[in-house]
Design goal:
With about 350 residues, this protein is mainly beta. It has a single domain, classed as Beta-galactosidase, Chain A, domain 5. About 10% of the residues lie in helices and about 45% in strands. The chain contains 4 helices and 26 strands. The strands form 6 sheets. Strands 11, 12, 13, 14, 15, 18, 21, 22 and 26 form a 9-stranded antiparallel β-sheet that branches. A 6-stranded antiparallel β-sheet has the order 8-17-24-23-20-19. It is globular and about 65 Å long. It starts with a strand and ends with a helix.
Length: about 350
């Protein structure tokens, strides 16, 4: 195991510590104030400087994340709101949106509010207001490494309708500055069901600033609307916060490497020797990336969003013939890795990897 710049065996470490918490691990607790009250939380300390917070009551999504004390994410004014405050109508989802490192959207609809037949659907689906069940801490020693592993499952179901179950496992390791998410989605009902999922990964100041750059292994980029179309040439460039800024949204068709993984990162080379937040995801079931560029004052965020379809209302997806479905008894696996790039070499190697993918294709 790597602690600082040295490698230790399990036996060597156990002679030096009284409690694993000295070098990393997990801590379970409950939030106590305001609209956050009652929300379960799990802090994960990887010992590398990369720390993050999982919220079991918010679909095992991830709110806070930092590296050596530096914030990596955008946090809304709402905070880590208890899911009891969630309302599904229209854009009310925004009142409980904490943003953070990960807010999952889905599972049977996402995108803007709108109609799908008789269903009046709100923004981005119900997932992130769904508490997980059977939350398990399976963290353990594996030879000389300490593996951090947390899991839980949740269901999005309705009588006479869709019945979808998601089993989520979040993994890391003491000494690493990354995490890995594996989701297995199953249709346990008796009829076909829509299945839409989007991983809303929200990067904020100070990683996001006027000189930050986005790199992404995409081969085609589209805009969602006319305003975004006017800014598509600068999809990877950012500015200082702008008063009354209107959001821009882009849709990337992704390219993968030989192992089937796509890559993207927001990089800021002006912080110390450079820092970036990267994502890596399997394109087998997540072939696209939505990009949310919001340069507003206070509302200052860039979201990188691996997804299995366009970020549109379910009715629009159905009319366009691109609504993903999952059959009874069928299961699908999605994989997303999120981590930190530190220093010129790590950043350069990551950019070179993306350049190589684009050249091959």
């Amino acid at each position: 195991m790597k602690i600082g710049n040295k490698i230790y065996s399990k036996a060597e470490l156990q002679k030096r510590i009284g409690n694993l918490g000295q070098i990393g691990g997990v801590r379970h607790y409950e939030l106590l104030e305001g609209s956050n009250k009652g929300t379960r939380a799990i802090d994960v300390n990887t010992g590398s400087g990369f720390n993050f917070t999982i919220l079991p009551d918010r679909g095992m999504d991830i709110s806070r994340a930092s590296y050596k004390g530096m914030n990596l994410v955008y946090q809304t004014p709402n905070g880590e709101v208890n899911p009891a405050f969630y309302q599904s109508q229209g854009s009310e989802w925004l009142r409980t949106f904490f943003a953070g490192l990960l807010t999952t959207c889905g599972l049977t609809y996402l995108g803007p509010p709108g109609k799908d037949g008789d269903d009046d659907l709100g923004l981005h689906g119900r997932y992130s207001a769904s508490p997980a069940r059977q939350v398990c801490d399976l963290s353990r020693w594996e030879k000389d490494e300490y593996r951090i592993e947390l899991s839980g499952h949740l269901e999005e179901s309705i009588l006479f309708g869709s019945k979808i179950r998601l089993n989520r496992t979040i993994m890391s390791q003491i000494g690493l500055k990354s995490l890995y998410i594996e989701d297995i989605v199953e249709n346990y009902g008796s009829t076909d069901s829509p299945f839409t999922i989007l991983y809303h990964i929200n990067i904020g100041f100070p990683v996001l600033d006027k000189n930050s750059k986005l790199v992404v292994s995409s081969n085609k980029i589209f805009s969602y609307d006319e305003l975004s179309k006017s800014g598509i040439i600068k999809f990877n460039q950012f500015s200082e916060p702008i008063a009354n800024y209107q959001e821009q949204n882009f849709f990337h068709e992704m390219l993968g490497d030989k192992e089937g993984y796509a890559y993207a990162a927001l990089i800021n080379t002006e912080i110390e020797n450079g820092i970036g937040v990267y994502i890596k995801f399997a394109i087998a079931n997540l072939p696209y990336l939505s990009e949310w560029k919001m340069m507003g004052e206070v509302d200052y965020v860039v979201a990188l969003e691996p997804c299995n379809t366009k970020c549109k209302n379910r009715g629009d997806l159905r009319r366009e013939g691109i609504l993903p479905m999952i059959e009874p008894g069928e299961s699908k696996k999605t994989e997303v890795e999120i981590g930190v790039l530190v220093g010129e070499k790590e950043i350069s190697d990551f950019v070179s990897k993306i350049d190589a993918i684009k050249k091959i294709k």
